[in-house]
Design brief:
The protein is an alpha/beta fold. It is built from 11 helices and 17 strands. Strand 3, helix 2 and strand 4 form a beta-alpha-beta unit. The structure holds 6-aminohexanamide.
Length: about 375
């Protein structure tokens, strides 16, 4: 059922933190040839690995276009439900529903308006109509009521919640002219509070360097690990443009408190050394007018902070880089009861995001 007249906050619902126990995880299956190289086959192999890894810990639902349905069904993956879900691309963090709970055993979905990261201003592809239905379809499959924000564009990768009333986001993304250009920062903040059941929004200035696809989503630079505590993508080298971005985020976060008055504790996770697209990789992505090109030599927005926090495990992108081990160790220290599951994720990165961007949790209400 669609709820038109009220908001989650008015009804006593809020977005729990990602570490809140999950009922399941949703993913979409990649196949877009103007985003994924070589008919998306290398990306599909990594998506399959992500799906099967998460499925060791919780049920997984994979949404697949009809053209790939038989292929994915035949994989016969344990604890994985394959459903036909028409989509334009595979970023369910962004086009899927954000689930909210009321602490009394009830679950609902927020179905944000989706415009492919900027619509006709600076969006990544056209059309995006199938992606925009994903939130509604997720709610239908889950059998939950849905709030639709017809007048407000948002992607799930642009927000994090601590589950206690504080939200993290970036100015770079939410104030970009491709989302809600007619709204002021105060109006956007009010929407976040209403639809996420929150009281305070922390605005990090910028996302990861070269995260141009998403205009600097927060889920690539910073993530809550506990109320009052975050991990931040960090770069020591002052000559690297990432350093200034990370330093701005650090200065901002250390000057802030959360809604409960806690100072924000920041744990740094160094980013991998710069990763660029090779000529071979760029050559095997279809270049189509109107979609964002993949060019030889472009730097990719690589970050360990784009991990997924599921029941019992952290699904962590790694890059065969000298900083991989430090990221694994830091997260293991932060989550001593969870298994760290590193997955070599260059293929997902080549598509413009990473493991957090391709997953969407449904919390246990
Ligand atoms: O990182 C994300 N949340 C999505 C990236 C979309 C990239 C499309 N090429």
């Amino acid at each position: 059922m669609r709820i038109n007249d009220t908001t989650p906050k008015q009804d006593g619902y809020y977005m729990p933190a990602e570490w809140h126990e999950h009922r399941c995880t949703y993913l979409l299956w990649p196949e877009r040839e103007d985003n994924w190289r070589e008919n998306a086959e290398p990306a599909q192999a990594v998506f399959q690995q992500v799906i099967q890894t998460i499925a060791k810990y919780e049920p997984v639902v994979v949404g697949v276009n009809v053209s790939q349905y038989a292929h994915v069904l035949e994989m016969n993956m344990p604890n994985v439900q394959v459903v036909e879900l028409a989509n334009n691309d595979a970023w369910i963090r962004d086009c899927g529903a954000t689930c909210v709970i009321n602490g009394k055993g009830r679950l609902r979905g927020v179905d944000w308006k989706f415009n492919a990261w900027g619509g006709l201003v600076n969006g990544l592809y056209f059309p995006w109509d199938q992606d925009d239905f994903i939130g509604a379809k997720m709610c239908a499959i889950e059998g939950i009521d849905r709030y639709r924000t017809s007048d407000f564009v948002l992607e799930g990768g642009s927000i994090h919640s601590d589950g206690e009333g504080t939200i993290l986001t970036t100015e770079e993304c939410l104030l970009d002219e491709g989302r809600n250009p007619e709204m002021s920062k105060e109006q956007i903040e009010a929407k976040l509070k209403e639809y996420l059941g929150a009281e305070k929004v922390l605005w990090i200035p910028k996302g990861i360097y070269m995260d141009e696809d998403t205009n600097g989503h927060v889920d690539n630079i910073c993530q809550f690990v506990a109320p009052g505590k975050v991990v931040l993508a960090w770069e020591d080298n002052e000559e690297d443009p990432q350093h200034e971005r990370s330093q701005m985020a650090l200065d901002y976060l250390e000057s802030q408190t959360d809604v409960k008055g806690r100072k924000i504790e920041v744990v740094k996770i160094h980013v991998p050394n710069p990763i660029t697209i090779t000529a071979e990789e760029a050559a095997h992505v279809d270049q189509i007018e109107g979609t964002f090109p993949r060019r030889d030599g472009d730097r990719l927005p690589a970050s360990y902070v784009n991990y997924y926090n599921c029941n019992g495990a952290i699904i962590l992108p790694v890059f065969n880089d000298e900083h991989d081990q430090a990221a694994i160790d830091t997260l293991q220290e932060l989550f001593p009861d969870k298994i760290i599951e590193p997955i070599y994720a260059r293929e997902i990165l080549l598509g413009g995001g990473n493991i957090h961007c391709i997953t969407q949790q449904v919390p246990k209400p």
